[in-house]
Amino acid sequence: ILGRYDGANKDADTALNEDPFSVPGILAKAEARYHQGSFEHALNIITGKYRHVIQNSTHWQITEGVTKDTN
After folding, report:
1. H or E stretch covering 1
2. CB contact set of 36 (below 8 Å; sequence gap of 6+)
3. Are 25 and 16 in contact (CB under 8 A)?
4. Helix (H, G, I), strand (E, B) or coil at 33
5. 3-state SS, residue 49
6. Any residues with CB less than 8 A from the CB of 6 and at least 6 apart, and which?
7. Considering only CA atoms, which of 20, 31, 11, 18 is closest in space to residue 53?
8. Is residue 34 within 8 Å of residue 49, measured between CB atoms?
9. For the whole model, what pTM was predicted?
10. C-alpha 62 chain-centroid distance
């Protein structure tokens, strides 16, 4: 992401259009939206539309994303 949140958001949208179950794409989109100041939208990405994908995934980046928030 490297501080380029608009581009990261567009890239995440592209990734999610190709694979709607891409956990890295979901987390990148949520993180980009968070850093753009759209906190509620970021939370909705994680707890709403993509919640089942994240809950059913064993992808290592889920843990990384969760620990970023709790540290």
Report:
1. none
2. 5, 6, 9
3. yes
4. helix
5. helix
6. 32, 36
7. 20
8. no
9. 0.68
10. 9
Give start and end residues of each alpha helix (H) in the chain.
Answer: 5-18, 23-35, 39-44, 51-55, 60-70
Residue 63 token pair: 């843990």
- The predicted-structure confidence for 59-69, as pLDDT tens digits, reads as follows 545 555 555 55
Which residue type is seen at 32?
A
Run means of pLDDT, 10 residues per run, the chain, 71 residues: 84 93 89 93 85 66 52 51
Locate tokens 């759209």: which residue? 38
Q: Give the total residue count for the chain.
A: 71
